[in-house]
């Protein structure tokens, strides 16, 4: 015989309590699992975008950062450097970067979002060596001694826009990575989606 005197309020309480305890257990079990899905600091360093403070970078100064294991060169160009870029259009292989790798916004004479700042991957497009930064007039190996970047491995030369000079082993201009300005003093390298 079935007892019809079931305390329904107690049953509801026990069902609700079991549901709450079960839900809490599920959440507690899911937290470590979800935490393993977020990238580690090492993984972030390998491919995640990086922020760079450029507030202290003076005109003519050059810094090297690291993104995806590659050197990223950031050069704050002087007006004289910008003038030299314009004057060298006839002695570089790809003056407006038709055949080189860069985002659309850097497909211009200065290869930049803002003319004053050059942001490139610091690896020669010939065999991946890292060229040297040469200031104007300090090395006769650069055309017209206007300065730029010189790769000592096989003699490739690049101007202050990262454009390759004619008759050197490097086939294309230095690569411009995706980047954007978060503010006048901060760069985000590795992501060029627009800031909202």
> SSE order in H/E notation?
HHEEEHEEEEEE
Q: What can be said about the biggest beta sheet? A: 3 strands, antiparallel
CA gyration radius, whole angstroms: 28 Å
- Indicate the mean pLDDT: 83
| Fraction of residues in H or I helices | 10-25%
Strand order of the largest sheet: 1-9-8
Distance between the termini: 70 Å
CATH superfamily of the largest domain: Rieske [2Fe-2S] iron-sulphur domain
Number of strands: 9
**Computed structural class:** alpha+beta
CATH fold assignment of the largest domain:
Rieske Iron-sulfur Protein
Q: What percent strand?
A: 15-25%
- Counted by DSSP, the helix tally is 3
- Apparent shape: rod-shaped
At the first level of CATH, what is the class of the largest domain?
Mainly Beta
Would you identify the regions where 5 or more consecutive residues have pLDDT less than 50? Answer: 140-144
CATH architecture label name of the largest domain = 3-layer Sandwich
Q: Quickly count the domains.
A: 2
